[in-house]
Design a protein that fits this description.
Layout (H helix, E strand, L loop, with lengths): L4 E6 L5 H11 L4 E8 L2 H12 L6 E4 L7
Length: about 70
């Protein structure tokens, strides 16, 4: 079997929840959520906690942590 596709989710607004759910609950056999990023640190931590509740550890990043080159 091929390796899982590793993904980071950038932007955790209201619509993003369905993507997180798909990655963590439905497509975990082929995909792995490894990080989340948002301009709102509380929202990023909340999503990381939700993911952790599903047995997955993700890193959290602030928007300023990403280079804009």
């Amino acid at each position: 079997m091929a390796d899982k596709t590793r993904l980071a989710q950038v932007g955790l607004g209201s619509r993003s929840e369905m993507y997180s759910m798909a990655l963590v609950e439905m497509f975990q056999s082929n995909h792995e959520l490894v990080a989340v990023c948002d301009t709102n640190a509380g929202r990023a931590q909340q999503r990381a906690n939700w993911v952790k509740g599903h047995g997955v550890e993700v890193k959290t990043y602030a928007a300023g942590d990403l280079a804009d080159d």
